[in-house]
Amino acid sequence: MVIAKxxxxxxxxxxxxxxxxxxxxxxxxxxxPEPKTxxxxxxxxxxxxxxxxxxxxxxxSRLVTIDTRLEEPAIRIYGEAKTAQxxxxxxxxxxxxxxxxxxxxxxxxxG
Length: 111
Description:
The chain has a five-stranded antiparallel sheet with strand order 6-5-4-3-7, with helices on one face. It has one domain (about 1-105). The protein has about 110 residues and is α+β, with helices and mostly antiparallel strands. It has helices at about 25-30, 80-95, and strands at about 1-5, 10-15, 35-45, 50-55, 60-65, 75-80, 100-105.
């Protein structure tokens, strides 16, 4: 297991160990629908990492923002995909203006 750190304190797990999934994890995998569209942007700035993740489902959209300097991720749910896409684009533009650099932009990374 790898722990994300900010200012020498653990802020979250990045990768899971290779243990078999729990019953709860198996239930979640079976019940969550696959998104129609998804995009992940990994960002870096000095000694910090950030991540924007956009997932568009049939009836709603989810935007997740992770900043390793903060304790918890921000998760927003939108009823319309267009609104989520607009907010995603605006946040990314502001982040780049604030000196962040894109390390990865594409489909979600698994593994």
